[in-house]
Amino acid sequence: ERRRGEGLALRGIVLAFGGVRAIDGLDIDVHPGEVHGLIGPNGSGKTTTLNVISGYYRPQQGTLALGGAPLPAGAPTLRAAHGIARTFQTPRVVGEESVLDNVMLGGTVEGRAGFAEALLALPRQRREERAMRERALAALRVVGLESLAEARADRLQHSELRFVEIARALALRPAFLLLDEPAAGLSTEEIRRLGALIRAIARQGTAVLLVEHHADLIFDICDRVTVLNLGRVLAAGTPAEIRSHKEVVSAYLGG
Ligand code: ADP
Fold this sequence. Notes:
By secondary structure, this protein is α/β, with parallel strands linked by helices.
Protein backbone atom coordinates (compact mmCIF):
# COMPACT_ATOMS: atom_id res chain seq x y z
CA GLU A 1 0.00 0.00 0.00
CA ARG A 2 1.39 3.39 -1.05
CA ARG A 3 1.83 6.15 1.48
CA ARG A 4 -0.87 8.79 1.41
CA GLY A 5 0.12 12.12 -0.06
CA GLU A 6 2.75 10.70 -2.41
CA GLY A 7 0.88 11.61 -5.56
CA LEU A 8 -1.64 14.38 -6.00
CA ALA A 9 -3.59 15.11 -2.84
CA LEU A 10 -6.63 17.39 -2.62
CA ARG A 11 -7.82 18.15 0.89
CA GLY A 12 -11.00 19.97 1.84
CA ILE A 13 -11.23 21.93 -1.39
CA VAL A 14 -14.10 24.42 -1.51
CA LEU A 15 -14.85 26.61 -4.49
CA ALA A 16 -18.01 28.67 -4.73
CA PHE A 17 -19.33 30.85 -7.53
CA GLY A 18 -21.31 33.54 -5.80
CA GLY A 19 -23.21 31.60 -3.18
CA VAL A 20 -23.11 28.28 -5.04
CA ARG A 21 -20.52 25.74 -3.92
CA ALA A 22 -19.41 24.06 -7.13
CA ILE A 23 -17.10 21.91 -5.02
CA ASP A 24 -17.74 21.55 -1.38
CA GLY A 25 -15.04 19.96 0.76
CA LEU A 26 -13.38 17.68 -1.75
CA ASP A 27 -10.71 15.10 -0.84
CA ILE A 28 -9.06 13.13 -3.66
CA ASP A 29 -5.78 11.18 -3.77
CA VAL A 30 -4.25 10.11 -7.05
CA HIS A 31 -1.25 7.88 -6.37
CA PRO A 32 1.82 7.48 -8.59
CA GLY A 33 1.18 4.62 -11.01
CA GLU A 34 -2.57 4.83 -10.55
CA VAL A 35 -5.26 5.58 -13.11
CA HIS A 36 -7.97 7.34 -11.15
CA GLY A 37 -11.36 7.96 -12.75
CA LEU A 38 -13.46 11.02 -11.95
CA ILE A 39 -17.11 10.74 -12.91
CA GLY A 40 -20.43 12.29 -11.99
CA PRO A 41 -23.55 13.77 -13.52
CA ASN A 42 -23.54 17.19 -15.21
CA GLY A 43 -23.03 19.98 -12.71
CA SER A 44 -21.41 17.70 -10.13
CA GLY A 45 -18.17 19.70 -10.12
CA LYS A 46 -15.81 17.76 -12.43
CA THR A 47 -14.78 20.73 -14.58
CA THR A 48 -14.35 22.94 -11.53
CA THR A 49 -12.11 20.29 -9.95
CA LEU A 50 -9.97 20.14 -13.10
CA ASN A 51 -9.65 23.90 -13.14
CA VAL A 52 -8.59 23.98 -9.52
CA ILE A 53 -5.93 21.32 -10.15
CA SER A 54 -4.67 23.11 -13.28
CA GLY A 55 -4.46 26.43 -11.49
CA TYR A 56 -7.21 28.21 -13.44
CA TYR A 57 -9.27 28.60 -10.27
CA ARG A 58 -8.04 29.34 -6.80
CA PRO A 59 -10.04 27.49 -4.15
CA GLN A 60 -11.45 29.45 -1.23
CA GLN A 61 -10.57 26.63 1.16
CA GLY A 62 -8.41 23.55 1.15
CA THR A 63 -4.95 22.48 0.01
CA LEU A 64 -3.34 20.75 -2.94
CA ALA A 65 -0.07 18.85 -2.76
CA LEU A 66 2.04 16.86 -5.19
CA GLY A 67 4.61 14.38 -3.98
CA GLY A 68 4.03 15.52 -0.42
CA ALA A 69 4.90 19.16 -1.21
CA PRO A 70 2.18 21.82 -1.11
CA LEU A 71 1.34 23.29 -4.51
CA PRO A 72 1.45 27.06 -4.38
CA ALA A 73 -1.52 28.88 -5.84
CA GLY A 74 -0.55 29.93 -9.32
CA ALA A 75 -1.10 30.06 -13.02
CA PRO A 76 -1.24 26.93 -15.21
CA THR A 77 2.36 27.48 -16.44
CA LEU A 78 3.55 27.33 -12.86
CA ARG A 79 1.59 24.12 -12.38
CA ALA A 80 3.38 22.66 -15.42
CA ALA A 81 6.71 23.60 -13.87
CA HIS A 82 5.62 21.67 -10.78
CA GLY A 83 5.03 18.49 -12.77
CA ILE A 84 1.33 18.82 -13.55
CA ALA A 85 0.25 18.33 -17.16
CA ARG A 86 -3.18 18.18 -18.76
CA THR A 87 -5.04 17.66 -21.99
CA PHE A 88 -8.19 19.49 -23.06
CA GLN A 89 -11.61 18.30 -24.24
CA THR A 90 -10.94 19.98 -27.57
CA PRO A 91 -7.37 19.41 -28.74
CA ARG A 92 -5.41 22.67 -28.81
CA VAL A 93 -2.91 22.73 -31.65
CA VAL A 94 -1.34 25.35 -33.88
CA GLY A 95 -2.48 24.04 -37.25
CA GLU A 96 0.26 25.53 -39.40
CA GLU A 97 3.06 24.19 -37.17
CA SER A 98 4.47 20.69 -37.31
CA VAL A 99 3.28 17.98 -34.97
CA LEU A 100 6.74 17.97 -33.37
CA ASP A 101 6.67 21.74 -32.76
CA ASN A 102 3.23 21.42 -31.23
CA VAL A 103 4.49 18.74 -28.87
CA MET A 104 7.57 20.83 -28.04
CA LEU A 105 5.31 23.72 -27.06
CA GLY A 106 4.29 21.60 -24.11
CA GLY A 107 7.80 21.83 -22.74
CA THR A 108 8.10 25.61 -22.81
CA VAL A 109 7.25 26.41 -19.25
CA GLU A 110 9.78 29.14 -18.54
CA GLY A 111 8.89 32.80 -18.89
CA ARG A 112 10.54 35.07 -21.48
CA ALA A 113 13.63 36.94 -20.34
CA GLY A 114 14.87 40.29 -21.69
CA PHE A 115 16.98 40.49 -24.88
CA ALA A 116 20.39 40.68 -23.17
CA GLU A 117 19.57 37.79 -20.90
CA ALA A 118 18.20 35.87 -23.86
CA LEU A 119 21.47 36.42 -25.79
CA LEU A 120 23.57 35.24 -22.88
CA ALA A 121 21.27 32.31 -22.43
CA LEU A 122 21.46 31.26 -26.09
CA PRO A 123 23.94 28.36 -25.73
CA ARG A 124 21.97 27.04 -22.80
CA GLN A 125 18.75 27.53 -24.72
CA ARG A 126 20.09 25.63 -27.72
CA ARG A 127 21.01 22.75 -25.43
CA GLU A 128 17.61 22.91 -23.81
CA GLU A 129 15.90 23.01 -27.17
CA ARG A 130 17.76 19.90 -28.29
CA ALA A 131 16.79 18.15 -25.08
CA MET A 132 13.20 19.32 -25.55
CA ARG A 133 13.18 17.98 -29.10
CA GLU A 134 14.38 14.60 -27.87
CA ARG A 135 11.68 14.53 -25.21
CA ALA A 136 9.02 15.50 -27.73
CA LEU A 137 10.13 12.77 -30.14
CA ALA A 138 10.16 10.24 -27.31
CA ALA A 139 6.63 11.32 -26.33
CA LEU A 140 5.43 10.94 -29.94
CA ARG A 141 6.98 7.47 -29.97
CA VAL A 142 5.03 6.57 -26.82
CA VAL A 143 1.71 7.55 -28.42
CA GLY A 144 2.64 5.89 -31.73
CA LEU A 145 2.82 9.05 -33.87
CA GLU A 146 6.57 9.41 -34.42
CA SER A 147 6.10 8.98 -38.19
CA LEU A 148 3.94 12.13 -38.28
CA ALA A 149 6.44 14.34 -36.41
CA GLU A 150 7.12 16.57 -39.42
CA ALA A 151 3.53 16.70 -40.70
CA ARG A 152 1.56 19.92 -40.33
CA ALA A 153 -0.82 19.55 -37.41
CA ASP A 154 -3.84 20.62 -39.49
CA ARG A 155 -3.31 17.60 -41.73
CA LEU A 156 -4.07 15.22 -38.89
CA GLN A 157 -7.35 13.52 -38.10
CA HIS A 158 -9.23 14.35 -34.92
CA SER A 159 -8.24 11.07 -33.30
CA GLU A 160 -4.56 11.69 -34.10
CA LEU A 161 -4.77 15.17 -32.57
CA ARG A 162 -6.05 13.62 -29.35
CA PHE A 163 -2.90 11.52 -29.19
CA VAL A 164 -0.76 14.59 -30.07
CA GLU A 165 -2.29 16.33 -27.06
CA ILE A 166 -1.30 13.44 -24.84
CA ALA A 167 2.23 13.50 -26.31
CA ARG A 168 2.48 17.22 -25.54
CA ALA A 169 1.53 16.56 -21.94
CA LEU A 170 4.02 13.67 -21.72
CA ALA A 171 6.83 15.85 -23.09
CA LEU A 172 6.69 17.67 -19.75
CA ARG A 173 7.57 14.38 -18.02
CA PRO A 174 4.76 15.08 -15.57
CA ALA A 175 4.41 13.46 -12.17
CA PHE A 176 0.67 13.97 -12.58
CA LEU A 177 -1.40 13.88 -15.75
CA LEU A 178 -4.96 15.11 -16.10
CA LEU A 179 -6.93 13.77 -19.06
CA ASP A 180 -10.16 15.65 -19.85
CA GLU A 181 -12.54 13.49 -21.92
CA PRO A 182 -9.78 11.90 -24.01
CA ALA A 183 -12.14 9.33 -25.58
CA ALA A 184 -14.56 11.90 -27.02
CA GLY A 185 -14.96 11.37 -30.75
CA LEU A 186 -12.80 8.24 -30.89
CA SER A 187 -13.82 4.92 -32.44
CA THR A 188 -14.02 1.72 -30.39
CA GLU A 189 -10.63 0.61 -31.71
CA GLU A 190 -9.07 4.00 -30.96
CA ILE A 191 -10.52 3.92 -27.43
CA ARG A 192 -8.95 0.50 -26.93
CA ARG A 193 -5.57 1.95 -27.99
CA LEU A 194 -6.14 4.97 -25.77
CA GLY A 195 -6.85 2.73 -22.79
CA ALA A 196 -3.66 0.74 -23.36
CA LEU A 197 -1.69 3.98 -23.68
CA ILE A 198 -3.10 5.39 -20.43
CA ARG A 199 -2.22 2.17 -18.60
CA ALA A 200 1.31 2.31 -20.03
CA ILE A 201 1.71 5.93 -18.88
CA ALA A 202 0.64 4.99 -15.35
CA ARG A 203 3.04 2.04 -15.34
CA GLN A 204 5.90 4.51 -15.70
CA GLY A 205 4.89 5.92 -12.30
CA THR A 206 2.74 8.85 -13.38
CA ALA A 207 -0.41 9.58 -11.37
CA VAL A 208 -3.27 9.83 -13.88
CA LEU A 209 -6.66 11.44 -13.31
CA LEU A 210 -9.14 10.53 -16.02
CA VAL A 211 -12.35 12.52 -16.46
CA GLU A 212 -14.47 10.64 -18.92
CA HIS A 213 -18.10 10.10 -19.90
CA HIS A 214 -17.24 6.82 -21.58
CA ALA A 215 -18.13 4.49 -18.70
CA ASP A 216 -16.64 1.34 -20.27
CA LEU A 217 -13.23 2.99 -20.52
CA ILE A 218 -13.43 4.18 -16.90
CA PHE A 219 -14.37 0.75 -15.58
CA ASP A 220 -11.90 -1.09 -17.83
CA ILE A 221 -8.72 0.79 -17.02
CA CYS A 222 -9.10 2.62 -13.70
CA ASP A 223 -7.59 1.34 -10.47
CA ARG A 224 -9.98 3.52 -8.50
CA VAL A 225 -12.92 5.76 -9.29
CA THR A 226 -14.27 8.81 -7.49
CA VAL A 227 -17.92 9.70 -8.12
CA LEU A 228 -18.94 13.31 -7.58
CA ASN A 229 -22.41 14.56 -6.88
CA LEU A 230 -23.28 18.17 -6.01
CA GLY A 231 -19.63 19.02 -5.47
CA ARG A 232 -18.99 16.20 -3.00
CA VAL A 233 -17.65 12.67 -3.16
CA LEU A 234 -20.64 10.37 -3.46
CA ALA A 235 -18.45 7.27 -3.58
CA ALA A 236 -14.82 6.27 -4.09
CA GLY A 237 -13.44 2.80 -4.68
CA THR A 238 -12.46 0.16 -7.20
CA PRO A 239 -14.50 -0.14 -10.40
CA ALA A 240 -16.18 -3.24 -8.96
CA GLU A 241 -17.13 -1.37 -5.78
CA ILE A 242 -18.44 1.62 -7.73
CA ARG A 243 -20.47 -0.52 -10.10
CA SER A 244 -22.28 -2.18 -7.22
CA HIS A 245 -22.64 0.98 -5.09
CA LYS A 246 -26.38 1.47 -4.54
CA GLU A 247 -26.48 5.28 -4.56
CA VAL A 248 -24.17 5.53 -7.54
CA VAL A 249 -26.25 3.12 -9.54
CA SER A 250 -29.50 4.93 -8.77
CA ALA A 251 -28.14 8.49 -9.02
CA TYR A 252 -25.82 8.12 -11.93
CA LEU A 253 -25.46 4.81 -13.71
CA GLY A 254 -29.22 4.57 -14.15
CA GLY A 255 -29.65 0.99 -12.97
P1 ADP B 1 -19.45 19.28 -14.28
O1 ADP B 1 -18.15 19.51 -14.97
O2 ADP B 1 -19.45 18.04 -13.43
O3 ADP B 1 -20.61 19.29 -15.22
P2 ADP B 1 -19.07 21.94 -13.18
O4 ADP B 1 -17.83 21.92 -12.40
O5 ADP B 1 -19.04 22.54 -14.54
O6 ADP B 1 -19.69 20.46 -13.24
O7 ADP B 1 -20.19 22.72 -12.36
C1 ADP B 1 -20.45 22.54 -10.98
C2 ADP B 1 -21.44 23.58 -10.49
O8 ADP B 1 -20.82 24.87 -10.51
C3 ADP B 1 -22.69 23.73 -11.34
O9 ADP B 1 -23.75 24.02 -10.47
C4 ADP B 1 -22.37 24.89 -12.22
O10 ADP B 1 -23.56 25.55 -12.62
C5 ADP B 1 -21.54 25.76 -11.33
N1 ADP B 1 -20.52 26.54 -12.09
C6 ADP B 1 -19.49 26.02 -12.79
N2 ADP B 1 -18.74 27.00 -13.34
C7 ADP B 1 -19.34 28.17 -12.99
C8 ADP B 1 -19.05 29.55 -13.24
N3 ADP B 1 -18.00 29.92 -13.97
N4 ADP B 1 -19.89 30.48 -12.71
C9 ADP B 1 -20.95 30.11 -11.97
N5 ADP B 1 -21.26 28.84 -11.69
C10 ADP B 1 -20.50 27.88 -12.19
